[in-house]
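Repro:
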Amino acid sequence: MEQFISVFKNAVNMDDGDIVSDTELDGLEGWDSLGKFMLLSSIYSDYGVTIDVKALNAALTVGDIWRLVEGA
């Protein structure tokens, strides 16, 4: 999970701030359409996993996204 948090922070261009599994995505700086695209690209590059956009949009926390990666 720690590596995924690093991937997440890089994808959404977050330099500062603590991100944990329970961090809510709503209102998170960088969590916009470009951030989502960058995250999907990073997940594919780093984990070889393709995440469905609908599933990504339904995610409420960083941990929810990690579970999508693990379940793929």
